[in-house]
Amino acid sequence: MGRMRTEGVAALVGELAARGLSIATAESLTGGALVARLVDIPGASRVVRGGVCTYATDTKASVLSVSRERLELVGPVDEEVAKQMASGARALFGADIALSTTGVAGPGSADGHEAGTVHVACAAPGGALHRLVRIPGDRCAVRAGAVDAALALLREALDGGLL
């Protein structure tokens, strides 16, 4: 999975601005890299409401209102957790749309999942999207790939009528 070019991210930010939409992020394994990619773009202040890094599992519940029961049952690397993270960020920041990332960057497995297992989600007025991606490579490659996967999901949401 190649890194989304700056022009692609700029086009996403520009489209959000043109459509009068705001965005927020909820991140785990990416540690703030997703919101950083967005704010790298001049004019991002017109659309980015904020981002939160809930790296520790319990902060997903306390900050983003992810179900504690779900986290205890399946852990943080999960489709429903990713969706709840995105919904939580959308509510927390009062944003039109929110993206989330959760998964295992490696090295090695965690919570019964192999390194490179990543869930990304997008919450918007029209519903939620989710993708499970498997990203090969070292920790750095997995984290960068997770950011790209979340941005690709944003593109899909913008094109697919979720907004």
UniProtKB/TrEMBL annotation:
InterPro entries: CinA-like_C, CinA_C. SUPFAM superfamilies: CinA-like. It holds the Pfam family CinA. Residues 11-158 form the CinA C-terminal domain. Signal peptide: none annotated. NCBIfam families: PncC_domain (TIGR00199). This is Competence/damage-inducible protein CinA. It comes from Schaalia georgiae F0490. The gene is cinA.
